[in-house]
Amino acid sequence: MNPSPELIPLLKQLRLSGILDSIEQRNRQALAEKFSYMDFLAMILQDEVARRSQKRFALALRRASFRSQKTLEEFDFTFCPGLNRTLITELASCRFLEEKVCVLIVGPCGTGKSHIAQALGHAAIRAGRDVLFSTADRMFNQLHAARATNSYERQFARFVNIDLLIIDDFGLKPLKGSQDEDFHDVISERYERKSTMITSNLDIPEWAEAFPNRILGAATVDRLRHGAYNVVLEGQSYRSSQPAPQQQKSLCQKEHKINPLKEVKKSF
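RE: above sequence
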């Protein structure tokens, strides 16, 4: 049973053409189950709301530029028996975004830092937030290239205004040129306005040493640590080939103080 010809242009004009995907099936269902007109209208509008929600979600995932679609459901917590799942669940609730504080995830290579960061970003998108994932090196390169094309302000605003900015692999390469200033400017603009998540192989006290300008580094790290949630992972790499049985169980710890539920370490 095809929709009446005059219905199609009206739906397109109202930007409701997605209803055409399900209206035939819903019409047959309504006739078979003797729905009222109001019930039928509610049903097709619910279909449209669900379709738009899924479309927004898919678009947000593309814009986030994740390396892969990692979720917490895929994370192997048995590999990290010491990792506090209550803390990760608390972070996945995305309440830290309301607090406008940072999440700092540190640990050796291959212990799951990027997986957790992307999974929490995925949760933020499900909560309706805009997320951008970038390695530190890529962010610096994009800002540097933008200067050459007179688009620095637009690129800078992209990093500053996003609800959740995830910077992966900070400190993997020494900062050079104007990178320390760019990083400081991004963090300063986001400070107490937006949440930033950073992963690093360096311990947090070592972050300031990654800056050529140590004073600038100290000021930047001070803003990052203020009220931040610190997640520390320790153990063998997930990528290790054929690990020995005793290596499969790593000790993953969370720095914590004050509130045992949230396992928060507040830095001032």
